Amino acid sequence: MFTVRIQAQDFDAAAEAAALARGRTDIGAVVTFAGLCRAQDAPGGAPLIALTLEHYPGMAEEEIGRLMEQARARWPLVGATVIHRYGRMVPGDNIVLVVTASAHRAAAFEAAEFLMDWLKTRAPFWKMEERDDGKGWVAAKDEDDAAAERWA
Predict the structure, then answer these.
(1) Could you tell me which residues come within 8 angstroms of residue 95 by beta carbon, excluding any fewer than 6 positions away?
(2) Which residues are within 8 A (CB) of 106 and not within 5 positions of it... i.e. 6 or more apart?
(3) Is pLDDT above 70 for 42?
(4) Strand 29-36 relative to strand 87-89: parallel, antiparallel, unpaired?
(5) What is the distance between the alpha carbons of residues 9 and 55, in angstroms, rounded to a whole number?
(6) Domain residue limits at 140
């Protein structure tokens, strides 16, 4: 089972991982990554009040689907789930979930890391941060691009 969902509502990471593996005897490893909204980027920085994520409907699902197909071509996955939220979130809220399943742990770990690295740089999402001193769009980060490029 390979699933991509873009949604405003929260998700339950444990339930999603369990659903992917339920009834399967060919799975030896399930890797789950959940990205959360955090209050601060750096010590001493202005605390984040909220993060609003916007996306391009249709295009976001299509691009994440392409990334999932690339992961399937590179690793022997038997299932994967990617859920990305949009809308306004506050610190502590779930933002993104990547779950990968394979017969072997190395493939599940590497595929999850690949998907997350490329989600940060390729998926058409835009982030606006809200802080005490105002709101602003988040620029792309060089370290995210570098992480994704290692998979090229």
Answers:
(1) 35, 36, 37, 51, 53, 84, 85, 89
(2) none
(3) no
(4) unpaired
(5) 14
(6) 2-149
Q: What is the pLDDT of residues 51-106, one digit of tens each?
A: 999 998 889 999 999 999 999 999 999 999 999 999 999 999 999 999 999 999 99
Domain CATH for 69 = 3.90.1170.40
Which residues make Cβ contacts (< 8 Å) with residue 38, sequence separation at least 6? 48, 91
Instruction: For 24, list phi and psi in degrees, rounded to 5.
Output: -100, 135
Alpha helices in 39-141 (DSSP H): 59-74, 105-122
| Structural domains in the chain (count) | 1
**pLDDT number for residue 129:** 92
SS3 53: strand
Rounded mean pLDDT of 11-33? 96
Q: How confident is the model at residue 136 (pLDDT cuts 50, 70, 90)?
A: confident
- Characterise 134 by phi-psi region: left (phi > 0), alpha (psi -120 to 50), beta (else): left
